[in-house]
Amino acid sequence: MDATGRTGLRPLTARSVVLSTLLGHHPPLLPARALVRVGRLFGIAEGTVRVALSRMVAAGDLEQRDGGYALTARLLHRQARQDDARSPRTRPWDGAWEIAVVTPEPRPAAERSALRQEMSALRLAELREGTWLRPANLRRSLPPSVTGPCTLLTGRPDDDPAALAASLWDLTDWAGRARALHTALEQAPDPAGEFTAAAAILRHLMADPLLPAGLLPADWPGDALRARYEVFHAEMRALLQEHTATT
Q1: What is the CATH number of the domain that holds 181?
Q2: 97 touches 136 (CB < 8 A)
Q3: How far is CA 147 from the centre of its chain?
Q4: 79-104: buried (b, 16+ CB within 10 Å) or exposed (e) per residue?
Q5: pLDDT in tens, 177-207
Q6: Residue 29 pLDDT > 60
């Protein structure tokens, strides 16, 4: 299975190495020499890493601060989402669903697109245009970007909630990709391969709908994929610490 196959693996680049390293580092701030060492670990030349850093600053992905490179606010939001994907904040589910109905006011296309992206990032699914919902099993508050243009409701479906969930999310596809990514990480031939597979796993976990167990198919691989990623993360963190030391 290649990079365009079911795993969705992307080639390892200087930008992806820098971005993944900072997204996994708390706080997400490292000097250039540390990022150069990480790039060298994966066979990426110093000049290539430094060019990537300059381009990422120009693109607004990074900012130079305190003698190093740090994630900008937009990517700090992504880091928070990744952290939540690794350790979901859930609560016991009593059968209720949260519903967000977009108020029918004229909005520019860019605002409508941004709202759709925000809804998806919050793991809400669109039942029909302007009506988004999910089981109310997440410990979170909705941001003003959603509460402003939406009316918020709670309710319970009259029909089978598991069937409703299956119609809102392609659970079969998500599970199949999760298993393929788990195998890709297990079979990676070297640290670069592991790094690439793990980055794809983290992206995939961000798309996990985080449904209550009663709404999921049997043998759902979400928890197993998270556990395997955490093993990788601990191993890679120890390896990267040797290369991100600032002394």
Answers
A1: 1.10.10.10
A2: yes
A3: 22
A4: bebbebbbebeeeebeeebbbbebee
A5: 999 999 999 999 988 899 999 999 999 999 9
A6: yes
pLDDT tens-digit series, residues 74-120? 899 999 999 999 999 999 999 999 999 999 888 899 999 999 999 99
Which residue segment(s) compose the domain that 217 sits in? 1-89+165-247
To the nearest 10°, report the CA torsion of 27, 31, 32, 35. -50
* Alpha helices (H) along the chain: 14-23, 32-41, 46-58, 73-86, 109-121, 144-147, 161-168, 171-186, 191-205, 222-244
CB 220 within 8 A of CB 175: yes
Above 80 in pLDDT, residue 1? no
Domain contains 115: yes
Answer whether 153's CB lies under 8 Å from 101's CB.
yes
Is the pTM above the cut of 0.85? yes
For residues 77 and 115, state if they share a domain. Answer: no
In a domain? residue 160: no
User: Of 49, 38, 85, 86, which is closest to residue 191 (Cα–Cα)?
Assistant: 38
Residue type at position 150: C
- Asked whether 100 and 151 are in contact (CB, 8 A), the reply is yes
Residue 170 and residue 186 in contact, taking contact as beta carbons nearer than 8 Å: no
Name 68's Cβ contacts closer than 8 Å, sequence gap at least 6: 29, 30, 31, 32, 34
For the chain, how many residues are written? Answer: 247
